[in-house]
Here is the input.
Amino acid sequence: MEGQATFDLSTAIERQKPRGFLVMLVFVSWLVTFFDGFDMNVISFTSKQLEAAFHLTSPMLGNVFSIGIFGTLLPASCSATSATGSGGGPRSSWPPAPSRP
Here is the structure.
């Protein structure tokens, strides 16, 4: 199809100057990321008080922390797999599928 003009969307996006919406979006994303990791960091500093308050042993509390991390990991890996399966980039899954000869 000669003679038709093409429009490069990625170039148009990259040439934009940061405006209020973009700055707010980056700031809110940063806040979400900060507070998402903040709870796991704070809990490590309060573990001794939690052990005493709930009469837990260190291995019991370790199991609770591990389940919390697993509970974050599992939905994240499932949503990433389903998102790439709906179109777009290369598919990824965990565990990786064996390669075919």
Q: What stands out?
A: The chain has a mean pLDDT of 78. The CA atoms of residues 54 and 61 lie 10 Å apart. The first helix runs from residue 9 to 15. The two ends are 39 Å apart (CA to CA).
